[in-house]
Design goal:
The complex is a heterodimer of chains A (169) and B (400). Chain A is of the alpha+beta class and 169 residues long. Chain A has helices at 4-22, 76-79, 109-120, 133-140, and strands at residues 27-33, 36-41, 45-48, 54-57, 60-65, 80-84, 93-94, 97-98. In chain A, the strands form three sheets. Chain A has a four-stranded antiparallel beta sheet with strand order 1-2-5-6. The N and C termini of chain A lie far apart (78 Å). Chain B has 400 residues and is of the alpha/beta class. Helix content of chain B is 20%, strand content 21%. Chain B has nine helices and 15 strands. The longest helix of chain B has 20 residues, at 190-209. Classes of the chains: A alpha+beta (169), B alpha/beta (400). Chain A binds chain B through residues 1-6, 36, 63-65, 67-69, 71-81, 83, 86, 92, 94-99, 101-106, 126, 129-131, and chain B through 114, 117, 121, 157, 165-166, 168-170, 172, 174-178, 241-243, 245, 281, 286, 292, 294, 297, 325, 327-331, 333, 361, 363, 368-370.
Chain lengths: 169, 400
């Protein structure tokens, strides 16, 4: 029961996912196995408190699983699981479901992480056909508030030109 | 061997075929399949019910509206040939135990790329030849392909490129549209469907009579009825994403209730009885140990079971009574001896949700290859085996 194509895919995803994590201050990748990860995001997103107020939060966990037929058939209900927090406030998230749209077979781990990040930070959200209609309506009336986090997921190198200024004699 | 063409065929010569889909193409098949001499048993699989809108594009009558498609076609086949044992499965083929597909040939009349992909995978693993047809109403195109599983043979996915996988993925419902998705309706006229059915029946007759010389194996015939031309295309196997594994599936007479998880794991070993390092999977059926309640966020430990076979009565949250789900992240495709306690090893497979006809695969962790077993009586067993056929059919199926 070996599948060289899939095993090669998993090793590549592990390498690319860990490389991305090492270049980001906004998420960590916790591998449980080569086919299963918890992506822990530290960016800004929204949750609804017990008092009903929608506030910012900065810790979000998503489970990612690559079933053995993932390179041929991607079932979004299996691949992505919203783990934490359960009071997340987003049109595309109703725990344990998170909708990033259609997932193409063999879509890479880094691509999935980018798309989840865009969902959490409201860089991307559904205004029609959402998982949670009431949140979509709420968001529709507050478009100026989004995205809630504009930072790039991947740390950017700061290349400032440095010149030696010679003091005039 | 029967040498007299007028004499009835011996039961052992009779073949079993499975017809997946009873729509535009599949509704035209019973009248043709029922007249192929060496077919003794036909299994119809379709989860849908005929609707008013199907009257235009499917070979049905008004009285069929409102009735399960598989059941209608099974009854129709019996009218054509009462000697054929016709059975109906009013379910998705993906939800049936894989052993149901252990037949002499599968005739695919589905309009979904995803289902076609599933049939290809199952047929290949079981070593079952399958014939696939499709129509394109806008171009007046009809095509048929024949696939014979073999080490170097062409499978349905060998010809797929990125675009084909994309189309298949778009059929898959997004979480935002659960209950939606699915393939777009073909809206094909019944004439196209009947031509496709005729092509399937012709290749099926060749296949079952052993005329492999003229069989369309690994190739495709496409009829362009607008311009009155036809094309024969041979496919090459280059970088297919499917592993093309053909399994040796050993039948085990014991029912899932009579085999414990520990015993089944032991089948992977060398006969010493040790289950150390062994793992077990049920094709297409992931395992789970916990359920989640979306309403209140409660996690419930439910014990090891197949995630899609949890009885409805147990899919209720003990805390709030809401409907529970198994999260994708909590599913496991295999269960290994290392993660099992003694009590779990003593549980019968039926208690996990394993059904008659399921294909159970066991292997030793880290060792390539494995063993495959089909449990109990498989409904699709050879048509001539009356001893098997006399047993009750699968509990979830409807027999015509």
């Amino acid at each position: 029961m070996s599948d060289d194509v899939f095993e090669g895919f998993l090793k590549q995803q592990f390498a690319e996912g860990m490389a991305l994590a090492s270049q980001s201050d906004l998420f960590e990748l916790l591998p449980q196995d080569l086919d299963r990860y918890v992506a822990s995001f530290h960016c800004k997103g929204l949750v609804r408190g017990r008092d009903g107020e929608v506030v910012e939060a900065s810790e979000f966990h998503v489970g990612i699983w690559f079933p053995s037929d993932y390179c041929r058939h991607a079932d979004p209900l299996k691949v992505l699981t919203w783990l934490y927090p359960l009071n997340v406030w987003h049109p595309n998230v109703r725990p344990p479901l998170i909708c990033i749209g259609h997932i193409m077979p063999a879509m890479g781990l880094a691509d999935l992480i980018y798309q989840v990040y865009e969902i959490i930070t409201y860089q991307n959200f559904a205004t029609h056909d959402p998982l949670r209609g009431e949140v979509a309506e709420w968001a529709w009336n507050r478009m100026d508030r989004f995205p809630v986090d504009r930072r790039p997921l991947k740390r950017r190198a700061l290349n400032l030109p440095v010149k030696n200024e010679v003091q005039p004699q | 061997m029967n040498t007299n063409p007028r004499a009835p065929l011996a039961e052992s010569d009779l073949k079993t075929v499975l017809i997946a889909g009873a729509g535009n193409i599949g509704s035209g098949l019973p009248t043709m399949i029922g007249r192929i001499p060496n077919i003794g048993k036909v299994l119809f699989v379709d989860p849908q019910v005929y609707e008013e809108k199907n009257l235009r594009g499917q070979d049905i009558s008004r009285s069929d509206v409102g009735k399960p498609k598989a059941l209608v076609q099974a009854r129709r086949l019996r009218r054509v040939n009462p000697a054929i044992d016709a059975r109906a499965f009013c379910e998705r083929i993906e939800d049936l135990p894989l052993g149901v597909m252990q037949v002499d040939s599968i005739l695919s009349c589905v309009d979904s790329w995803g289902v076609r992909q599933y049939i290809n995978q199952g047929a290949w693993h079981l070593g079952v030849p399958w014939i696939d047809a499709a129509v394109d109403a806008s171009g007046l195109l009809v095509r048929v392909n024949v696939y014979l599983p073999g080490a170097d043979s062409i499978c349905a996915e060998c010809g797929w490129d990125e675009e084909d996988y994309r189309i298949a993925a778009l059929e898959q419902p997004r979480p935002c549209e659960v209950g939606g998705g699915g393939p777009a309706a073909t809206n094909a006229p019944v004439s196209l469907g009947l031509i496709a059915a005729g092509l399937i029946a012709t290749e099926c007759q060749k296949l079952l009579s052993g005329d492999h010389e003229h069989l369309l194996a690994g190739r495709q015939v496409m009829l362009d009825l607008r311009d009155h031309t036809h094309f024969v295309t041979a496919f090459r196997r280059t970088h297919c994403r499917f592993n093309h594994e053909i399994w040796v599936v050993e039948p085990r007479e014991a029912s899932p209730a009579a085999v414990t998880l520990g015993q089944a794991l032991g089948w992977a070993g060398n006969g010493s009885g040790s289950v150390e390092g062994c793992e077990l999977r049920v094709e297409g059926q992931p395992f789970a140990r916990t359920q989640f309640c979306p309403a209140c966020g409660n996690h419930e430990t439910i014990g090891l079971c197949l995630a899609h076979r949890i009885p409805p009565a147990r899919r209720r949250c003990p805390a709030c009574g809401g409907a529970t789900v198994v999260r994708g992240f909590d599913m496991r495709e295999a269960v290994g001896s290392a993660g099992l306690d003694r009590e779990e090893l003593r549980r019968p497979l039926s208690a996990l949700g394993v059904q008659t006809g399921d294909v159970v695969s066991v292997s030793i962790h880290g060792v390539a290859g494995g063993k495959h077993f089909v449990l109990g009586e498989s409904t699709s067993k050879r048509a001539g085996d009356r001893r098997q056929a006399a047993r009750p059919p699968l509990s979830q199926s409807v027999r015509s």
